[in-house]
User: Fold this.
Amino acid sequence: MRIVIDENVSYGVVERLRMRGHDVLSISEMPERGMSDEDVYALAVREEAVLVTRDYHFTNPVRFSADKTKGIIYIRHGNLRSEEEIRMVENFLRAHDMEVFKGKLVTLYKDSIMIR
Assistant:
């Protein structure tokens, strides 16, 4: 699975997903670090990738339509340790086939998931 990881997501998520065999593009590793939300979204669309972010702006379907991507996974803000973020994303991807969330917005909470 091709995945774009926004720079506001723990780098541990990048490392873990790569260990699991995913093709991960990390915004924090790109020369264009600090990219606008629009550029991050355009990258996910162009790369036909899932976007993983903690940026609430990506939950706005008018600005960032999930149906143009392979899905947007939004990690709900909160005091999360890196290992918690890693576990949340990893558990979601392991438990859900991509067809379930392709073109949809997924919100990951500490204790629940919402797909719309």
About this structure: DSSP finds four helices and six strands in the chain.
